[in-house]
Amino acid sequence: MKSDHFTHTADDGVELFVYRWKPDYEIGKGVVQIAHGLAEHAGRYERLAEALTDQGYQVYAGDHRGHGRTARDQRDLGYFGDRDGWNRVVQDLMEIATAAKSASQVFQ
User: Containing H/E element for 48?
Assistant: First the structure.
């Protein structure tokens, strides 16, 4: 399994930390996007990503706003935003899915 990460700038300027895991061969069967739960972070899903990449899938998992490496500091943990926080998280997931689709050779 190959792993790396990148940051995606959401349309409101928030920098989202995204993990990316790929099979050892370049083109996989498909792409899986993981959305972690409350009070955790996407890095916890590395073992699941390993199982999925072993089966040929590429895996993307972003730390939501206020979680993991997307949170700016301890005070930011669990905080989605002043306004429309949950809707922003959903929009972030859609933006990461678009980025994953663009980067993946599966869809080309």
Answer: helix 46-54
Residue pLDDT, tens place only, 52-74: 999 999 999 999 999 999 999 99
Query: What CATH number did the domain enclosing 47 receive?
Result: 3.40.50.1820
The structure's pTM equals 0.90
Tally of domains within the chain: 1
Closest CA to 11 of 78, 99, 79, 72: 99
Beta strand 57-62 pairing with 30-34: parallel
CB atoms within 10 A of CB 61: 25
3-state helix, strand, coil split of the chain in percent (to 5) is 40, 25, 35
